[in-house]
Amino acid sequence: MTAPLLEVRHLRVEFPTRRGTLVAIDDVSFEIAPGEVLGVVGESGAGKSITGAAIIGLLEPPGRIAAGEIRLGGRRIDDLDPARMRRVRGREIGAIFQDPLTSLNPLYTVGRQLVETIRTHLDLTESQARERAITLLRDTGIPAAEARIDHFPHQFSGGMRQRVVIALALAAEPKLIVADEPTTALDVSIQAQIITLLKRLCREHGTAVMLVTHDMGVIAETADRVAVMYAGRIAEIGPVADVIHRPQHPYTVGLMGSIPSVGEHRERLAQIDGAMPRLNAIPPGCGFNPRCPRAFAACRERRPDLLEAGASRAACWLHDPAVAPAAATA
Amino acid sequence: MSAMAPQTAAPPQVGLAADGRADEPMLVAEDVSKVFDVSAPWLNRVLERKPRALLRAVDGVSFTITRGETLALVGESGCGKSTVARLLVGLYAPTAGRIRFEGTDVSVLGTSAGRAMRAKLQMIFQDPYASLNPRWKVADIIAEPIRVHRLIAGEGAIRERVASLLRHVGLAPADAEKYPHQFSGGQRQRLSIARALASQPQFLVCDEPTSALDVSVQAQVLNLMRDIQRENGLTYLFISHNLAVVHHVSDRVGVMYLGRIVELAPKAVLFATPRHPYTRMLLDAIPDMQMTGKARTPVAGEVPNPLNPPTGCAFHPRCPLADARCKTERPALRTLADGVQAACHAVEEGRA
Predict the structure, then answer these.
(1) Residue range B18-250, CATH number
(2) Is the CB of residue A269 less than 8 Å away from at least one CB of chain B?
């Protein structure tokens, strides 16, 4: 077992508001091995993007890390001052966001943005950096990279812009990329191109990826392991094939059943009634218990931690034989 | 060349008897086009010698929808599917071609003569945050079609009808006193559906009704839409970019590319044996939950600029089967032996 590249331990993110403190992330722990792709899925408000933002040190104020720690290659990065965090971000952690138009500066050519990023982090001359920028653009499949490098972001299509953003994220050869919904704004055919590209580049560069998305299909094709988030906690984490085909948490079971699939015909989709609780109204015990078809007394009182469940781990009392009623585990 | 036949629709084709409600499909679109003028202002055109710029959002689209079925239109952004939806409900007037609903041209929709048709033809929009008036109570939002069409007299009776509509879409009658911002996205989409049902429509145009929703909420809304279709005998035109959703809801599927329908087929046939190379590419691009870790070969290229579409078949720059004919001659939508319609020279010549 190699040492993990990224370790997140008991992470808690809070948003102080006038009406009290909202806990957006509550005691989340996971790790990512070097070169591994960890998918993080969940519905809006589950806390998946905030987890990503906490790791790259870009939590929107007043959000703050209230407890826990984040380690990259064994070194704590959650308590760095902004200037030192800026060195880590880009050099050691790359970031890809959903909307490529807002992650590029519209006033600078893509070449200038790439060269600036490269020279900030690597000791290269202007012309060497430009060479490297052209190589990066070519690697990401941008045709005529030598000419395109001097174009502005608005001169690129959505798919091409996302390729530029990937080139930027890879510019300083980071060991980890946090990609937040990188394909959500794109059409399906372009989405397929970008996923394939991201997979290939990360394999070639040995880069680990934390892939945050709501799209289980993207996870299925890309990730090695997947963490399913619900109401600020990890509901289930495990190898991607196990989580998809043998889900252990009732929420994951419901989530998988609610996804329409081209491969099969169903009269009705399985549905989880209700909606995810708001952050100010997370129920006591397991956050999923009001919607859970298998909830029992313990679920309403005590909050489950991640428990061994098949090849995965699930935060569900059904997997604790000492707590679950015999009838419930059957 | 038995596969070649004049352009006709796949489902039971009909005589166009003027009174024949049972005969004629509920909705017929004939060679419909919509051109938007996106030119620079006149002064700029004169000073900078810029030509007029015309965008053919929908370019000669024909299809029929029979009573009780769901026709889905699927395609990527900019293919014209939402423009078709808006043409159908009269939000845009077609530049060319005709759309008839129960034998009457939908161009009457904007006039007082179209009042009865407006009640029968309703639309559900993609964004439930933009399609509900934030300053109106739910009771007024849902009662508006009832009042406009004078379907029920008396405030008490209207209130009862609103309560029953709310129950019908899985909300509580007490929700009538709330404002839209007090609801989640999925609940708002339920409100949109309740409003659309208020005028007792027969035909619902649904433009990406679940695209803004989370998957578990999407499942709730799709199940609800199916239930109300059964109970009220509704006919749907369902617009979506999501093939898995289309597979779940539709009876027939039309695939659009750059303003034209390139393939139109019954759902089972389209997903089992896609003919048009673009349809095949779309199906290949669906992220597949079953094939964990499978490598796929995405089709290269992007949707071309609709202001300057390629000559011949618009798909030819991305098509693995394109030859000289595809670059010059635009393929017509032809009915193949099994009733599938496809617009492709390669399919027609048996090269596909």
Answers:
(1) 3.40.50.300
(2) yes
